[in-house]
Write a structure and sequence with these properties.
Elements: H1 2-11, E1 15-16, E2 22-24, H2 25-28, E3 48-49, E4 67-69, H3 75-83, E5 88-97, E6 109-119, H4 124-139, E7 145-149, E8 155-165, E9 170-180, H5 182-194, E10 205-212, H6 213-221, H7 234-237
Parallel strand pairs: 1-5
Antiparallel strand pairs: 2-4, 3-4, 5-6, 6-10, 7-8, 8-9, 9-10
Helix pairs in contact: 3-5
The structure holds 5'-O-[N-(L-tyrosyl)sulfamoyl]adenosine.
Length: 244
């Protein structure tokens, strides 16, 4: 499923990059406009790590601060922007971790696919176009997309999006998205300045999205419980050899 998603975006000119699962509080939260004690941190129940592992920053520099298991793939937005100058289009597949009670649709370990497009004149229309292309590639010409307003600290405006699944006859809530918040661009340029790099994010705009890979696979393959993915039961896993 992950390979299929990355393939769809590659065909649209996106480059796929990956990032670390052990992350610093700075990239996972602060740089994404979620400072300590911000109520939005409650959206991401976190596995905190003790001690320091000598984490590397985007340009190989040493990163200080509290460590955690990344709760989403969004920290890679910041890492990538620090090390690159726009315009660019990337997707970031990866494993994420949440200190959550598990049930049929919630796991403590799951996968997300992040997208980030930055350049001059990027608008919400480009975001809608990207999700529309994804829907067409996954579910064919009769698929539709739906956007509803929602709050994420690192986008303004923010949206949650769903794709119409013609065979199943229902909307699939896939993930969050929006226009990159100016404060994220400011945090990136401030970090670049500390590394002696010139600012690169003035006068550009961007969109980003993040979707849950298992939720998509569950609907596509009729898997009733997300816990089957990591349950290790061969009867389940053998049915999806080479597919998931
Ligand atoms: C939002 C805006 C952006 O510009 C970029 C990215 C995002 C997404 C944001 N980083 C995020 O993590 N949002 S989320 O908490 O709502 O998770 C996104 C998707 O991951 C959900 O829609 C769902 O499909 C999946 N997900 C979340 N918690 C999960 C889960 N899947 C399985 N188990 C869980 N516990």
């Amino acid at each position: 499923m992950e390979r299929e998603l990355v393939g769809i975006f590659r065909s649209l000119g996106y480059q796929a990059v990956e990032g670390p699962e052990v992350e610093s509080e700075f990239f996972n939260f602060d740089a994404l406009n979620i400072p300590e004690h911000h109520p939005a941190r409650d959206m991401w129940d976190t596995f905190w790590l003790e001690g320091s592992l000598g984490l590397e920053g985007p340009l190989g520099e040493e990163v200080r601060g509290r460590l955690l298991l990344r709760t989403h793939t969004s920290p890679m937005q910041v890492r990538y922007m620090v090390a690159h100058t726009p315009p660019f289009r990337i997707v970031v597949p990866g494993r994420v971790f949440r200190f959550e009670q598990t049930d049929a649709t919630h796991e403590a370990v799951f996968h997300q696919l992040e997208g980030l497009v930055v350049g001059e004149g990027i608008t919400m229309a480009h975001l809608k176009g990207a999700i529309y292309e994804l829907a067409q590639a996954l579910y064919g010409p009769h698929s539709k997309v739906r956007f509803q307003p929602i709050y994420f600290p690192f986008v303004e405006p923010g949206a949650q999006f769903a794709i119409w699944w013609p065979e199943g006859g229902k909307w699939l809530e896939l993930g969050g998205a929006g226009m990159v918040h100016p404060k994220v661009f400011q945090a990136v340029d401030a970090y670049r300045e500390r590394l002696g790099l010139p600012p690169a994010y003035q006068g550009v705009t961007g969109f980003a999205f993040g979707l849950g890979v298992e939720r998509l696979a569950m609907l596509r393959y009729g898997i009733p419980d997300i816990r089957y993915f990591f349950g290790g039961r061969l009867k389940v896993l053998e049915q999806f050899r080479g597919v998931l």
